[in-house]
Write a structure and sequence with these properties.
Layout: E1 4-7, E2 10-13, E3 18-24, E4 33-39, E5 46-52, E6 57-59, E7 67-72, E8 77-82, E9 91-99, E10 104-107, E11 111-116
Length: 117
């Protein structure tokens, strides 16, 4: 059974930094896209950042310049470094592994990030 396990969330004050991690039971080096999504209460799930197998990255406008997605293929782990956090970044953050060529779309259970003002 495939597992994506997020860790590193928590409660921080505005302006602080936090890094969340996603440990995968699949080979992320060969996965087309690894991504972080988030969902705030009463809002739709949105893409925060993704990273392709060729290391190209993509960010939501709201996090550009503040968040950085990266991965360690040897550890099968994807990271999201979040700097200058703001209350509007409060959400449940989900890790996603998507590969249309191999036919899979996996999600982690989500982890809470709360930013107080």
């Amino acid at each position: 059974q495939v597992q994506l396990v997020e860790s590193g969330g928590g409660l921080v004050q505005a302006g602080a930094s936090l890094r969340v991690s996603c440990a995968a039971s699949i080979n992320i080096a060969s996965t087309n896209t690894m991504a972080w999504y988030r969902q705030a209460p009463g809002k739709r799930r949105e893409l925060v950042a993704d990273i392709y197998s060729g290391e190209t990255t993509n960010y939501a406008d709201s996090v550009k310049g503040r968040f950085t997605i990266s991965r360690d293929n040897a550890k099968n782990t994807v990271y999201l470094q979040m700097n200058s956090l703001q209350p509007e970044d409060t959400a449940v953050y989900y890790c996603n592994a998507w590969d249309p060529y191999n036919g899979y779309d996996y999600w982690g259970q989500g982890i809470q990030v709360t930013v107080s003002s």
